[in-house]
Amino acid sequence: MARDGSNDGAARGGLVCVTGGSGFIGSWLVRLLLHRGYTVHDTVKNLQDERETKHLQALDGADTRLRLFQMDLLDAASVQPAIDGALGVFHLASPVILQPDRDPETEVVEPAWKGALNVLRAAKDCGVSRVVMVSSQTAMVPNPNWPADKVIDEHSWADVDLIKKHELWYNVSKTLAEKAAWDFAAKAGLDLVVLNPAWVLGPTLTPSVTLSLHVLLQILKGQSFDMDAFFIGSVDVRDVAESLIVLYENPSAQGRHLCLESSQRMVDFTNQLSDLYPELPVQRIQEDKQDWLVRAKGPSKKLIDLGVRFTPFEKTIRDTMDCFKSKGLIKHLKRQTIRKTFT
Ligand SMILES: NC(=O)c1ccc[n+]([C@@H]2O[C@H](COP(=O)([O-])OP(=O)(O)OC[C@H]3O[C@@H](n4cnc5c(N)ncnc54)[C@H](OP(=O)(O)O)[C@@H]3O)[C@@H](O)[C@H]2O)c1
């Protein structure tokens, strides 16, 4: 399928709801849905905040086919109006916070799983035909029981006790939310399908960069991050948006879907970045602690079989860099001066 939807014969159109459509992934999804003829109900946390609304209202088709709703994941009554009348729901809204300021339970974990249940319940009550939910690679690893010689696939679940012990609260939130969603869908007889993206990169339509791009920016500026327990690769945001629509439009798509270009280790990732941008102070990892992860090309077999084609890593990184430069976040600096500048 072409990304612009020009070469696709699948049934499409109708009203769908996107939760969290103001965010990094959400705004690409809303853009693609509008392009493909859908009418979209999109939830934002604060309708009065132009940083959440303006980039969406500027999208082609938004004037006639996009309606924004204010929604708080923990307020069930605020969820239903956006879903009412929709044929399908794309559930993306969830706190993307790695280091909570105060209480991880109330800031990150509860809004994720209780919010997912509020959305699924509303979808069931409103007679929605399919819910596509965004989970994460962090709901798949670390899994100490996974065979050391086997490529990670959709059968792997993160060990909740282990990620709690390591205080990986975002990972806990995604794992519990996905588990709660599967449990609810089975009991309620709701058609649910799940996408598990790896680390999402690429250009953003939002006015500021959200967490996943912020982390990349810091790595490009020389900071190091400990992601050894859960990093299995990266994926282009435009491929994530396309995959979500593919899952919605294909009734044969069932279960979880790992979404990434290739399974790689953090050491490969930083080496590739450093090779692409030798003028930047990217820290090469000296000790590879990810011997639990088998490298693989094209591990997202379920999505590939559904027609998804993944953007090569180098293009994603170059497009992300162009986006950073256009926002003035990385400047065109001479090779000799750059190390002094990024301190
Ligand atoms: N980026 C990645 O690397 C990655 C990888 C795997 C999975 N995911 C998942 O993909 C989804 C979107 O992530 P993203 O990267 O696009 O992050 P993002 O830009 O921060 O988007 C998150 C969205 O959720 C909304 N949200 C958060 N808490 C909410 C609440 N309590 N009530 C209502 N809305 C709430 C946010 O609204 P505001 O903008 O108003 O805060 C925002 O629209 C999330 O479920 C995330 O876990 C992301």
Automatic annotation (TrEMBL):
Top-level lineage group: Eukaryota
Matching InterPro entries: Epimerase_deHydtase, NAD(P)-bd_dom_sf, NAD(P)_dehydrat-like
UniProt keyword Phosphoprotein present: no
Keyword set, alphabetical order: Oxidoreductase
CDD domains, sorted: FR_SDR_e (cd08958)
Keyword flag Oxidoreductase: yes
UniProt domain NAD-dependent epimerase/dehydratase: residue ranges: 16-253
A GO term, aspect molecular function: oxidoreductase activity, acting on the CH-OH group of donors, NAD or NADP as acceptor
Protein name: NAD-dependent epimerase/dehydratase domain-containing protein
Organism expressing this protein natively: Eleusine coracana subsp. coracana
